[in-house]
Amino acid sequence: MLHRNFLTQPLESLEGCHDGVGVLRHLEVLRGEDFQADLRFLNYTVLPPGTSIGLHRHGNDQELYIVLAGRGELEADGKVYPAQPGDVFVNEPYGTHGLRNTGGEDLAVLVLESPCPAGEA
């Protein structure tokens, strides 16, 4: 059994994430080696007002963003979606995506990435 409380752990500064704006606060909660299932990572990321995760593209994987607090916008494949607490976004394989904090308080998200089986994108 593995147990961690990500809300009590110190966060690291992460500047220019995927060429985004500003300095985010970030914690790698779990790594791929923590799982038997095929999950690459689980990250907790906090975007202060005005900061962003820049628009970027992945390979044959899916990345989930789960919004815990704050408000912002998620851009995926040319479309912009409002982001608020409780929203879950599934970024598709080979798609482009980025996240901006457009609100006045911190935007907190959990980010999970999992590879797709070969030939299934």
UniProtKB/TrEMBL annotation:
InterPro entries: Cupin_2, GPI/OXD, RmlC-like_jellyroll, RmlC_Cupin_sf. The keyword Metal-binding applies. Residues 45-112 form the Cupin type-2 domain. Keywords: Metal-binding. Pfam families: Cupin_2. One of its GO terms (molecular function) is metal ion binding. This is Cupin domain-containing protein. It comes from Candidatus Acutalibacter pullistercoris.
